[in-house]
Amino acid sequence: MMNRAIVMIRLALRSLRRQARRSVLTAAAMIVGGALLMISLPLGDGTHEDWIDSAVRMGSGHIAIQAPGYQASRKIEDRLSDSARRAAEAALEAPGLREHIVTVKPQLAVGGLASSPTGARPAQIVGVDPVAEAAFSILDEKVVEGRYLEPGDRLAAYVGTGLAEGLELRLGSRLVLTAQDADGEIAGQLVRVVGIFRTGIPEIDQSLIHIPLSTAGSWLGSREDVTTIAVLVSSSRRVPRIRRALQRELASEIEAGSVTVMGWREAMPELDAAVKIDDLGNYMFQGILFGIIAMGIVNTVLMSVMYRKREFGLLQALGLTPRQTGGLVMIEGLILTTLSGIIGISLGLFITWFFWRDGLDFSFAWEEDWTFSGVVMDPVVIPYFRIARVIQGLVFIFIIGVLASLYPAFRATRIDVAEAMKFER
Amino acid sequence: MSNRDSAAVRTEDVWKIFEQEAEEIQAVRGVTLTIEPGEFVAMAGPSGSGKTTLLNLIGGLTRPTRGGVWVADRDLTRMSNRELARLRLEKVGFIFQAYNLLPVLTAIENAEFPLLLQGVNGGERRRRVMDLFEQTGLAGLEDRRPGKLSGGQQQRVAVIRAVVAEPALVLADEPTANLDSAASDRLLDMMEELNRHLTTTFIFATHDPRVMERARRLIRLVDGAVESDERREPEPER
Q: pLDDT by residue (tens digit) across A214-237?
């Protein structure tokens, strides 16, 4: 059995070599396909990483530790208690977790109203630790006037350009923030604009206000409580594992209903959907591309089967079964597609790594910031290499090889040996 | 055991009917034959007389429309494709008129192919094939591809391949049709020699008078039926 398999592999290799031109043409299509796959996948993953990084930094991190009802209510009464916060901070320091965590930021976020002598606007008011926030978020880099919050600031506010324009605020302008406090009462707080930012994301620029966490705590009566502890980890791919580890560490708090640990996909469902839709689009494009390549392979292999009817007839006369003859065609198709796929994948990885490992700049294609779902798209896409993608690419190409060889192999099994061996003068 | 049970080949009222554009073509019509082990038989007849079809029926390359075919006492009509392939590998050697060799293999690889499929080890394969190459004057041509061999040399390689696994039966379809008389004689000498030494049964489909002259039994076919069955000498010893 083994012996026969070796014979068939040897025959397949010889046949491929004998039909060198045809083999090279078929292989070329697969090599191009494999290369495109390995260029598009890391660039696509890099784009997604960029989106995720941008969104998690502006939002609630890769992992958000909150009170169970907060995600839905966004109300101060659904904040983390002081003990829950301490338990969460201790869990983040646990061995095995600490090394994967880049930074952490506490936030107290409430919906409220921002008023100036000009008028009032709904606002997302976030109490932050200026140092932790600056290390975590990119908002401090988006300053267009003034500065970001600093330790020691008390009645300072960092507002978006949209809100500043709407309320005619300038540096030093005073505004009153109104929101429901920890006791359910409406409370007001006077703050002064120390900085104005512009992210390019309208919904953020028109509503977000950062104030010091201590100011928010005393204004809303929540002392040192927070609504979210946002965690930034080294890679979005590690989120599920780290999240599970955190859930284990906080098992008793989770069971008591005082804490929930969410990944970015749950905390930012619109971003999750955007990544999935983009992935789906990429897969569809790759499916179409490889569908076309597969049709080319089917055509070439089928032509080869038709051309070699006598050879297959002879093999059956010598003792191969029809199924083994089909198997020979399958082996040829698989060797051709797999080898060329491996070359294509290597070529794609090489091109991506050699030319674009520091990023592929698409800024020529758009002049202004592209934003969606609270994400600012960076025009420089840095490819993200993952071994899983290489394996995925190889498996994909192997499947294409199997599918593309199936019909020609089936045709080879149907060869009428007597007819194939008929001598025509 | 009766004679019938130990025959090399037996056909009983075998028919092969092809349908071509709603027309029925009776390629083989009710042929009943018994061929004993070690016979050297020529089936002769004009083109379209059904000799190749009968050969294909005996080799299990095509199935009869009705009737029976037995090779080495095995009923081919009851065998699966897999079993037929096994039978061909172990019991039957084929020589065709042309395109006999696998173009991707060298002469020696072509010749040893059945042994390779049977799982015979490399040393034994080479020994058996090289003996036959020596005997048939092909020594020195082992590593040539078919394209680098003359028609006669290719046919000799095909004969070696047909007999190397020592099958009970060799079926040769017009093996000399594309050869000049010298090459034909050499090939026939070789096959006669092998027939004598190995007691392999040879059945030819031919309209070559040189083959008919050498055959010890001549079966004439006309329009798919046996017209005459003439033995030239006593049956070989059993």
A: 999 999 998 888 999 999 998 888
How many distinct structural domains can be found in chain A?
Answer: 2
* Mean pLDDT, range B205-215, rounded to an integer: 91
Instruction: Determine whether the interchain pair A317/B61 forms a contact, defined as Cβ–Cβ distance below 8 Å.
Output: yes
The answer to whether A423 contacts chain B (CB < 8 Å) is: yes
| Residue A65 and residue A40 share a domain | no
Asked whether the beta carbons of residue B102 and residue A322 sit closer than 8 angstroms, the reply is no
Q: Tell me the average pLDDT of chain A.
A: 88
CATH number at residue B162: 3.40.50.300
Nearest CB partner across the interface for B88, out of A318, A323, A422: A318
Residues B141-185 pLDDT 10s? 999 999 999 888 898 899 899 988 889 899 999 888 877 888 788
Domain interval for residue A201? 60-267
Are A369 and A57 in contact, with CB atoms under 8 Å apart? no
* Closest-approach residue (CA) in chain B for A312: B102
Q: Using 50, 70 and 90 to split pLDDT, how confident is the model at B1?
A: very low
Let me know whether A89 and A155 are in one domain: yes
Tens of pLDDT, residue by residue over A3-23, are 678 888 888 888 888 888 888
CB under 8 A, 24+ apart: contacts of B206-210: B206/B42, B206/B43, B206/B44, B206/B51, B206/B172, B206/B174, B206/B175, B206/B176, B206/B177, B207/B44, B207/B45, B207/B46, B207/B47, B207/B174, B208/B174, B208/B176, B208/B177, B208/B184, B210/B176, B210/B181, B210/B184, B210/B185
Q: How many domains does chain B have?
A: 1
Indicate whether A46 and A65 sit together in one domain: no
Nearest to A321 by CA among A414, A403, A423: A414
Instruction: Specify whether A169 is located in the same domain as A94.
Output: yes
Whether residue B149 lies inside any domain: the answer is no
Q: What is the mean pLDDT of residues A63-89?
A: 90
pTM value?
0.71
Cα–Cα dist B213/B75, whole Å: 31
pLDDT of residue A308: 85
Tokens found for residue A106: 């506490």
B117/A418 touch (CB, cutoff 8 Å), yes or no:
no
Asked if B81 lies within 8 A of A322 by C-beta distance, the reply is yes
Q: In this predicted complex, what is the ipTM? A: 0.87
